[in-house]
Amino acid sequence: MNPQTASRDEVRRFIVENRPVRGHWVRLEGAWRELRAHRDYPQPVRELLGQAVAASVLLAATLKFRGRLTLQLQGNGAVSLLVAQCTDDYRLRAVARFDEAAVAALPAGGASGETFRRLVGADGRFAVTVEADERNTRYQGIVPLSGDSLAASLEAYFSRSEQLPTRVLLAADGERGGGVLVQKLPQDAGTDESQMTEIWKQAEHGIEALSAEELLHCPVEELLGRGFAAHDMRLFRGTPVQFECRCSQGRVTSLLRALGPDEVRDVLREQGAVTVTCEFCHRPYRFEEGDVEALFEDGPDMGGNSTAVH
Ligand SMILES: [Zn+2]
Fold first, then answer.
1. Is there a single domain that holds both residue 286 and residue 216?
2. Which residues span the domain enclosing 120?
3. What separation in Å is there between the alpha carbon of 244 and the centre of ligand 1?
């Protein structure tokens, strides 16, 4: 890896020294540009997508698991579906489906609460699904999209599912995505309650005082220095984050088998070949007539019932 670019996309953990406050910080540059290179998202959707991608990295960093984490927004606003996935080793992909006309009708400017509400709609939901490799377990937490930002919804998710007071700041533009999250951990029996309350209040104010601009452009050391001026902070080494789609010939094969021979042969008749394009990376998978027949030669697929490319 080129050392000059190695640190551009990374997630880092930090703690307030000797206090039960921890956090994670993420910044995305090349990975963010690569992730959406195949698709031209209008600015408000791009911003929401970038925030969701940063949020998926922060969630993956916070929750201990081996496997993949999916953050999904679903609503009746201009964006009908948004999916951001991050693996435990920080390989990312994401996609958003949106209504062009509804997005075009949004007020200019972008990051306001009004824009957020119109993007996600009145009864949007926010789901976090973790598919863990070990024992093939899966769990899901769902909360309504609350407040006037994705960060507020994420805070609501944490207070409901993890029961840890959490503050989140997210930002994204055409070049970068970033986020920072701080959490108040359960304190030891001997900790002075009022002192702890004071420290947490300072941490919250520290986060609130940071601007999107700072989040996207300030070096992390400087950012934490501004946000937590009164405290000794310990910043741990960064872990690289990258864009990588998990689609493959094998997954698409499973998808087509799950659709069944009748449907797939219909498409073959109409179009001469079956082409499945990955929604995340736009890689096309083409099946000619012989390939389609080979799909269904061995009888029903016993290898699983994967019905989606993702
Ligand atoms: Zn793909």
1. no
2. 9-185+196-242
3. 8
